[in-house]
Write a structure and sequence with these properties.
Layout lengths: L1 E6 L3 E7 L5 E8 L3 H13 L5 E6 L14 E2 L10 E2 H9 L3 E5 H12 L8 E6 L3 E7 L2 E2 L32 H5 L1 H8 L10 H22 L4 E4 L6 H15 L8 H4 E2 L7 H17 L1
Parallel strand pairs: 1-4, 4-7, 8-11, 11-12
Antiparallel strand pairs: 1-2, 2-3, 5-6, 8-9, 9-10
The chain binds adenosine-5'-diphosphate and zinc ion (ZN).
């Protein structure tokens, strides 16, 4: 049996299942402090005979196996979790192989194996929620290098009529600073869910996301782009992206038909936990 953890800033989802993406059981645990949250995580997996565990985690995290602090959550704004050895804690407790990657890389793997990009060896998974993050599968492998990609923090051209300063604590008006959920709320003075009828809100959101997608497409040329996260519940954002992206590309790069190229997650909110299960499977195969 495989174990999976989707470690999020608000909650941890834990599940047991197999590589087909079928879950036998799962639970949700609030993300408080490591002592409290991890005690419950360990209690959950303790009930099963698990062969390996896969972790898709919020970050920033260290995913470089060569590093001394491999498997740590690193410079997160969540102080209690800073420099926390997440992978090591699970490995030491259960003595099984542990796969470790970002939540969004896990989601990309989930969608590429069992979801919207099934059968493709490449896809990009982007979440637009409290923050903006992206993971990618490239030639069947998860995209990582010196560290993991942080595609949410790229720079975009400001809309001439957008006077909002931006909210990223590091870069102020990077993509995340201008287009994540909290920025929408601060710019327009209300939660996204209450702005459904304000066309200009979602038009502007698509204006920024289309710029980001243009850059991701030019660099990675993914075979499928999957956009999830709370903000993408507004289907109007997809329409806005379909409008702005071709205007930006100017036919320089031929794009597939957009409504089947840029899509919602087929696994819904299970993309991350499904991918984590697959990380567990990969870790098991690598160990044997
Ligand atoms: P997280 O990123 O924390 O995992 P979500 O993906 O749900 O969580 O993103 C939360 C953000 O998405 C919040 O800023 C919230 O206002 C926004 N959001 C959630 N649901 C909707 C919706 N239906 N329409 C617009 N914005 C939404
Ligand atoms: Zn930033």
């Amino acid at each position: 049996m495989l174990g999976a953890i989707e470690a999020g800033g608000t909650k941890f989802v834990c599940a047991v299942g197999d590589e087909t993406g079928e879950f036998a059981h799962s639970i949700q645990i609030p993300t408080t402090c490591p002592e409290e949250t991890m005690a419950k995580v360990i209690e959950f997996f303790g009930q099963y005979d698990i062969d390996s565990v896969g972790i898709g985690s919020f970050g920033p995290i260290n995913i470089n196996p060569e590093s001394k602090t491999y498997g740590y959550i690193t410079s997160t704004p969540k102080i209690a979790w800073r420099n926390y050895p997440l992978l090591q804690t699970i490995k030491d407790t259960f003595g099984v192989p542990v796969g470790f990657n970002t939540d969004v890389n896990a989601a990309a793997l989930g969608e590429a194996t069992h979801g919207a990009a099934k059968g493709l060896d490449s896809c990009l998974y982007i979440t637009v929620g409290t923050g903006i993050g992206a993971g990618a599968v490239v030639q069947g492998e998860l995209l990582q290098g010196h560290s993991h990609p942080e595609m949410g923090h790229i720079l975009v051209r400001r809309h001439p009529s957008d006077a909002y300063t931006g909210k990223c604590p590091y870069h102020v008006d990077c993509l995340e600073g201008l287009a994540a959920g909290p920025s929408i709320e601060e710019r327009w003075g209300d939660k996204g869910i209450n702005l459904v009828d304000r066309k200009e809100v979602w038009d502007l959101e698509g204006y920024y996301l289309a710029q980001a997608l243009m850059q991701y497409i030019l660099i990675l040329s993914p075979k499928k782009i999957i956009l999830g996260g709370g903000v993408m519940n507004q289907s109007q954002v997809f329409s806005s992206i379909y409008k702005y992206l071709p205007e930006l590309m100017k036919e320089y790069v031929s794009l597939p038909e957009l409504s089947s190229y840029i899509v919602s997650p087929e696994l819904g909110d299970r993309a991350g936990i499904t991918g984590s299960l697959l990380l567990a499977h990969r870790a098991l195969i690598e160990e044997n």
